[in-house]
């Protein structure tokens, strides 16, 4: 039986998973790391973490395949999006990766808007001018570190870097390029207009290919290092969120998924380019070649829960399951504690890079479990806000499929259902991104004729359904209104900008 090795490079870890073509996970290896959080909105990643992590998970996967006499038909790579790494021609990285959460390029976004109206940028690229995306970071390097910019042979993303390590080639795919602000979202080509207005050299961009394209074969050096066959096809599966959408059956109109890992992303399928009149919902390339997705994201969700565990729950024996028990004991509404989860700025619907995280309504009676509960409820409410935003564009969403690390918690899934007042469905395997990458490879290799067939084989129709509780929803609906009033009051008075003015 054919087997596919997926490489999933997330913000908090890199994972290698071997799947057979029925979607059964045969082996998993993971390597965790932390981002580097600095002053002035800096969020970076040491590229050595990916070099070390990739070697570890690939070697362990190769050893398992050899011991079990498994053939590996392809390596399918998916990753986080919109980070930037300046790299020399010989593969030397010239700076830490500037990640998608980084906010140092606010000034570059203002330059872009001054030279090309926000609406024009949005209609050209499907994106807003925001530090979230790659182009402002590239401009930051050119303006603030011209020596690094000049030395850089390419300015690449995380998936592109992994592809280079495995194949020696500099290639990217439409789904990753769709997060750069440099690709024309209508024709999937590098935009001459965006390149001209930004001043970024086109020759510093990777070769642009459709998702699921062959990037090359595994190099002999990497084959020797890992024990995998030399020349095994390495495929560009594309962005992590687009692949998660495949595994959650977001393959036709009206279906939506909410994937909650480091951040949270609500995605719907589209057969055409779709724009929001207020530029709040992003339009990106789908992992299905020639299709699109509409997306509303949250920068920080699972990352906040991880931060809270590390800061407020000391001891190696503390698990998220133990924290979840305190969350459950806190009860609906967290005894009045409210969270605005904008720890590294706000994406949809506010699009405010100056926004910051906030616990509100604390008292001397507030307990640790209340804060933990407020985190989960705050994330669920932010997701619900984005559901409403998407529905304004495309109409009613009857059901939300969910995946990601936080959805391992049944309580979180039930809270999502109660807040949004929609059934929430979680599949048995929460590793939606890697399953989507395996599906992509299976279709690309001709094992299955299309993504719908691959979905039926890899995932099937079964899943845990969480039905909304009407009484809980009434409480949450009132809290959502208060959260909106709280954010609007802070933002309207310029508090965020005042606090950040001396930092950025």
Derived from helix and strand composition plus strand pairing, the structural class reads: alpha+beta
Please tell me the overall pLDDT: 93
What Rg is obtained from the alpha carbons, in whole angstroms?
22 Å
Distance between the termini: 54 Å
Q: Give the proportion of residues in helices.
A: 40-55%
DSSP helix count?
A: 18
- Largest sheet geometry: 7 strands, mixed
Strand content: 15-25%
Model description:
- The longest helix has 27 residues, at 368-394.
- The model has no long low-confidence stretch (mean pLDDT 93).
- With 504 residues, this protein is of the alpha+beta class.
- A hairpin with a 4-residue loop joins strand 2 (13-20) and strand 3.
- The protein has a seven-stranded mixed beta sheet with strand order 18-19-17-16-22-23-24.
- Helix 10 (240-247) crosses helix 15 and helix 12 (320-330) packs across helix 13 (368-394).
- It has 18 helices and 24 strands.
Give the topology, please.
Blueprint: E1 3-9, E2 13-20, E3 25-32, E4 36-37, E5 43-45, H1 47-67, E6 74-79, E7 85-87, E8 97-98, H2 106-115, H3 118-125, H4 134-144, H5 146-151, E9 154-156, H6 158-167, E10 171-173, H7 174-177, E11 183-184, E12 189-190, H8 192-198, E13 207-209, E14 213-217, H9 220-226, E15 233-239, H10 240-247, E16 256-260, E17 264-270, E18 282-285, E19 292-298, H11 302-312, H12 320-330, E20 338-340, E21 358-360, H13 368-394, E22 400-403, H14 410-420, E23 424-426, H15 432-444, H16 451-458, E24 464-466, H17 470-492, H18 495-500
Parallel strand pairs: 1-6, 6-15, 10-13, 16-22, 22-23
Antiparallel strand pairs: 1-2, 2-3, 4-5, 5-8, 7-9, 11-12, 14-15, 16-17, 17-19, 18-19, 20-21, 23-24
């Amino acid at each position: 039986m054919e087997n596919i090795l997926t490489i999933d490079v997330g913000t908090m870890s890199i994972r290698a998973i071997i799947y057979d073509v029925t979607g059964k996970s045969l082996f998993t290896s993971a390597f965790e790391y932390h981002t580097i959080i600095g002053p002035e909105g800096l969020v970076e990643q040491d590229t050595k973490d990916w070099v070390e992590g990739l070697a570890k998970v690939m070697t362990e996967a190769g050893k398992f395949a050899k011991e079990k006499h498994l053939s590996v038909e392809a390596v399918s790579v998916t990753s986080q999006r919109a980070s930037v790494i300046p790299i020399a021609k010989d593969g030397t990285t010239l700076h830490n990766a500037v990640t998608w959460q980084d906010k140092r390029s606010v000034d570059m976004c203002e330059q872009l808007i001054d030279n090309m109206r926000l609406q024009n940028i949005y209609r050209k690229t499907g994106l807003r001018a925001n530090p979230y995306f790659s182009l402002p970071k590239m401009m930051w390097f050119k303006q603030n570190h011209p020596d690094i910019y000049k030395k850089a042979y390419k300015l690449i993303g995380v998936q592109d870097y992994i592809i280079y390590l495995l194949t020696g080639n500099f290639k990217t795919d439409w789904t990753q390029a769709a997060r750069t602000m440099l690709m024309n979202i209508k024709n999937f080509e590098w935009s001459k207009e965006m390149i001209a207005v930004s001043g970024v050299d086109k020759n510093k961009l990777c070769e642009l290919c459709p998702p699921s394209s062959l990037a090359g074969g595994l190099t002999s050096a990497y084959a020797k290092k890992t024990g995998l066959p030399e020349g095994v096809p390495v495929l560009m599966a594309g962005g992590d969120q687009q692949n998660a959408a495949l595994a959650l059956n977001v393959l036709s109109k009206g279906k939506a998924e909410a994937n909650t890992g480091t951040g949270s992303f609500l995605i719907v399928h589209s057969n055409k380019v779709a724009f929001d009149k207020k530029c709040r919902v992003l339009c990106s390339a789908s992992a299905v070649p020639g299709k699109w997705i509409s997306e509303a994201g949250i920068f920080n969700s699972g990352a906040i829960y991880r931060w809270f565990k590390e800061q407020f729950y000391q001891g190696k024996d503390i698990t998220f399951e133990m924290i979840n028990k305190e969350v459950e004991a806190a009860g609906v509404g967290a005894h009045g504690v409210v969270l605005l989860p904008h720890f590294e700025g706000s994406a949809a619907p506010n699009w405010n890079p100056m926004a910051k995280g906030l616990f509100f309504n604390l008292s001397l009676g507030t307990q640790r479990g209340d804060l933990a509960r407020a985190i989960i409820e705050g994330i669920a409410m932010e997701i619900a806000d984005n559901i409403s935003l998407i529905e304004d564009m495309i109409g009613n969403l009857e059901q939300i499929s969910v995946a990601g690390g936080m959805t391992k918690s049944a309580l979180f899934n039930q809270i999502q259902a109660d807040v949004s007042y929609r059934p929430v469905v979680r599949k048995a395997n929460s590793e939606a991104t890697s399953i989507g990458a395996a599906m992509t490879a299976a279709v690309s290799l001709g094992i299955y004729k299309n993504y719908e067939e691959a979905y039926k084989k890899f995932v099937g129709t079964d899943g845990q359904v969480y039905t909304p509780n009407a009484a809980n929803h009434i409480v949450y609906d009132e809290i959502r209104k208060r959260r909106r009033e709280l954010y609007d009051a802070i933002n309207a008075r310029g508090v965020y900008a005042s606090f950040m003015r001396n930092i950025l």
